[in-house]
Amino acid sequence: MVSANLARTQSWWQEKLHRLSLHARVTLLAAVAVGFAVALVSVSAYVTVRQQMYRNLDSSLIDRAEQAAKTGVLTNQQNLATIPTDAFGLSDIRLGLYLATGQKVGAADSYLPPMGPTELAIAQSQSNEASVRTVGTRNGAHFRVISVPAEFCPIMHPCQQDREARLPAALVVAQSLDPIDRTLHNLGIVLWAFGLVGVIGAALAGNAIAQSGLRPLVRLTGAAEHVARTEELRPIPVSGSDEISRLALAFNAMLQALARSQDRQRRLVGDAGHELRTPLTSVRTNLDLLAQADQRGGLRPEDRQQLLDDVRAQMDELTTLIGDLTELARDTPQVRDAELIELSNVVEDAVIKVRRRAPGLEWDVQLDPFPVWGDERLLGRAVTNLLDNAAKYSTPDEPAGEDQPPARVTVRLRDGVLTVTDSGPGIAEADLPHVFDRFYRSSEARSRPGSGLGLAIVKHAAEQHGGMIYARNAPGGGAQFTLWLPHAATQSR
Fold this sequence. Notes:
By secondary structure, the chain is of the alpha+beta class. Helix content is 53%, strand content 15%. It is built from ten helices and twelve strands. The protein has helices at residues 2-19, 22-71, 77-82, 117-125, 178-230, 243-295, 301-329, 343-357, 376-394, 454-464, and strands at 93-99, 104-106, 131-136, 142-152, 167-176, 339-342, 362-367, 371-374, 408-414, 417-421, 468-473, 479-484. The chain has a five-stranded antiparallel β-sheet with strand order 2-1-5-4-3. A five-stranded mixed β-sheet has the order 7-9-10-12-11, with helices on one face. Strands 6-8 form a two-stranded antiparallel sheet. A hairpin with a 2-residue loop joins strand 9 and strand 10 (417-421). Helix 2 (22-71) packs antiparallel against helix 5 (178-230), helix 5 (178-230) packs parallel to helix 6 and helix 6 (243-295) packs antiparallel against helix 7 (301-329). The mean pLDDT is 78. The chain crosses the membrane at residues 26-49, 189-210.
């Protein structure tokens, strides 16, 4: 039950704290921390001073009582009966004797100190130890009572000559604690006052620190709200090297990444609109021609078939282009749900697929096993694009003569490096830096089919798998593309 109540109380406090602003929490934390420290110091100081005052008082009373017991002046009934305690310089205390028989003897015209079982035990045991105790109520008389063993001399016996006449007793001394209580009360007021001033000062200091320290965070919050409201991705100025400055730098880096992503999306949408417009216009033109011809009596069967084949080819190109755009639109930094793949099998399947589409080419293929972690569909698409590109540029526009070597595509896979070399005209030096750009097509490629996205997809797949792709002209002629992927043992799942 108690633990449940504590849990509910803690949950309630946490909920209340979470509702406060960070500024208020910093101020409250500073005030609570200083208040706790001040309370700890105040309690320690109060307890230390109180114990020291009581220790000094006890030591003084015991010394005075023991000296009085030794001299025998205050233990003589004749002295007590005729001389008040003021005459002995004991006006601030009460004095009395507690005999072992239970009789109480006090000084003349004086109040007896509190006497009880503790003092009676000292009188009866006559041990060398003194007893110390506090007697009284909180708001009434308050005394510190000291009792030491003593020998009482009755008035009718000359105790100086006859020591056997002395009776065992306890000399009891009680001093009022009112001066100490007043001192401790004043000390408590001073400590509370200084503690309150300290807590207020800590709260003010915490408020000033919160305002100064959170000013960059307020500026960062305003910048984030401005971005959300206006979609302007301008970085905010940063000064300093503290944690908030690092947060601002990370925020600026996020804005830059977001700006780059927006630029890529705009460029992709613009290029896609441009590239989609061409096949759609062609399809629409052919359909308009077919409709107009049907209104005039129709076309010859061979012309109609040619027109339909043209429309079908344009639709296939449009389908391929949409698939490529969908692939590139997945702007993810790395492959999700990767699995262990044998790269040589992926390349072999791609070679079989492309070889059926280009039966007139010779294929020189040598593949070594190489495991990788990745997306088999995406890797297969990338390798197929590389082979399709090589087959497209290796196929001559005109049939080769008897003295010309046959067109060939060379494929090698060794240690995770896939090299595809065609027998085409190669890549112009001005086009080499741009062959992997989206929708980029060289002047030689504009007469051939394609969308200009195939090699961009290859680069996209390589980067998602932690690899790289680069192009160059082979020493023996033709273009050579090299795709490198890391081994499965060096990749994390």
